[in-house]
Amino acid sequence: TDCQKNQYFNKKAFVSYLIHGCYCSLIIFFIPWASMNDAVRNDGKDIVSHPSFAFLLQTCLLIVVHTQLSLDTYYWTAVNHFFVWLSTIGYFAISVTMYSNGMFYVFPSSFPLFGAARNTLNQPNVWLTIFLTFLLCILPVVAFRFIFIQLRPTINDKTFLSSIRRSTRSGYAFSHSQGYGDLVTSRKFLIKRPLKMTALFTQTDSSIFQNQPQHYRTIVVTVPDCIFSGFKQDRTSTSCESSLCSWGFQ
Amino acid sequence: MMASSYSAKDEDGHITVSGPGGGTLRNKKPENTAFKQQRLPAWQPILTAGTVLPAFFIIGLIFIPIGIGLYVTSNNIKEFEIDYTGDDTSSPCYNCAKNFSWNNTKSCTCTIPFQLDQPYESNVFMYYGLSNFYQNHRRYVKSRDDSQLNGNIDSLKKPSKECEPYASIDNKPIAPCGAIANSMFNDTLTLFYNDPNGTSVPIPLTSTGIAWWTDKHVKFRNPVGTNSNLTAVFQGTVKPVNWHRPVYELDTDPENNGFINEDFIVWMRTAALPTFRKLYRIIQKKNTMAPTLPRGNYTLVVDYNYPVRSFEGRKRMILSTISWMGGKNPFLGIAYITVGSVCFFLGVVLLVIHHKYGNRNNSANISN
Predict the structure, then answer these.
(1) Is the pTM of the predicted complex or chain greater than 0.80?
(2) Chain A residues with CB inside 8 Å of B49's CB?
(3) Which one of A42, A79, A149 has the shortest CB-CB distance to B324?
(4) Domain boundaries, given as residue ranges, for chain B
(5) For residues B326 and A37, is the Cβ–Cβ distance under 8 A?
(6) Region labeled Disordered — which residues (chain B) (predicted)?
(7) A220: left (phi > 0), else alpha (psi -120 to 50), else beta?
């Protein structure tokens, strides 16, 4: 429904993405710049060399991007975990390898920035700078999202908020809401129950159903809360409608 | 809908359909595994008040002490800076700066007196700083040959094309080649302490241990020849245009001569910003309880060789002590205190918002 209402790709959304991008870029450059201006290592040697500074900026950027990605992922399956953690750890592993002795011996002209990772990452003020940059980029996003959830919750937010119990199914095929496969194949909804709300669809005779389990003429479902006994009782009517229609039932 | 009949579902979900033609069609349904049916167990992070608000408060409470600690540490670091560019007539180095020419065989010396108000304990680090010197210019940064600096004999005789136009003079290769090496800082700075009874005591300056260990021992190596004499190894090469001495005469100590000279290595590590400082010498702490640099009058004697007036640069000498977070840098401390306070304040604001508006959304009526 958010896509149907064009909420994700209009001018207002574009401007907000633009502002967010500009803000993060400025933070990622200027905080390390201000922190490294006239800085030295804790044994007195230089730290503001060109490759070290670039490596610091890279690291800040990667960490901010990964965290933003994590915030935007609604369902964390094993696949998500694997790729995000692989990416983060892989970045550090590859950087350290790239800046290591071994690669330099083999290809001295291709890996001239040797030593930058090792000599940068063992400085506490480098890690403090990274942490500060990361928080300055992520905290506004979290704050804004929280405020919007409180003030103007979307349908998805409402369903999320009332289902505090962790979901065990990732129905990401259905606009980030849980699918109805269970419901339809369990035949629970075919049992006649006293209705509390107006039924969306009428119920057909059950004799046809018993002969041909997969063949229906009309949709045999009503959407009151009590039907969803094996389910969470918080499906909104509109999301139910869109999901069931997408199954192809008439 | 089709009028064909369906048989009961198989165990694995495949349905065989018999159509009017009599043949069987294999259904293309994907396998009934958790991965392919999108039934993987998932965790769903939700931004509730219970997670966000404590997070903000905790971050605020952690950052403020860290910021205070950083600020106090930075304030305890002692630093002293002298600008000796000599662009002002009142400056002692004005004559040296004004009369600079590339053909000078005799170097110009200027003397700058200064005073330290506080004693400096533990190791004191002496830096030279340059301003408006863009060591991060792209063409400049590429103008070096790392194979040559690593001791590769072939690269010594034939420097890479990146070094052009500082690669060879009259068909003789330059060692070390490139614009970075050519513009090496060659001022000599010495310090004297003026005793209360009038004598001028030279302060011992250590010139080793100033470059990164990885640079000194791995990245920069002298070329190895049949003769261990460096002069012989560098036979057939010429010194860079702007240097006064060739590379094998940079220091009398053989461990600090040639490409592994630490001043050279420190210079070759290009700085990222146009105003930078590089470590020049270390004043080791004394074995006694006396401070390394006691309070009093000092003299800085400069061998003025490095021209900066043509690009309106500035030169300075910095004396500084060091702590666990490096040199004097109040920015991090102030930033942490600011961010911690803002975070705490934002947490309070979010708490108010949640209290006022959040509760009305938790009612049972969520259908719209």
Answers:
(1) no
(2) 146, 150
(3) A42
(4) 51-77+329-355, 80-322
(5) no
(6) 1-29
(7) beta
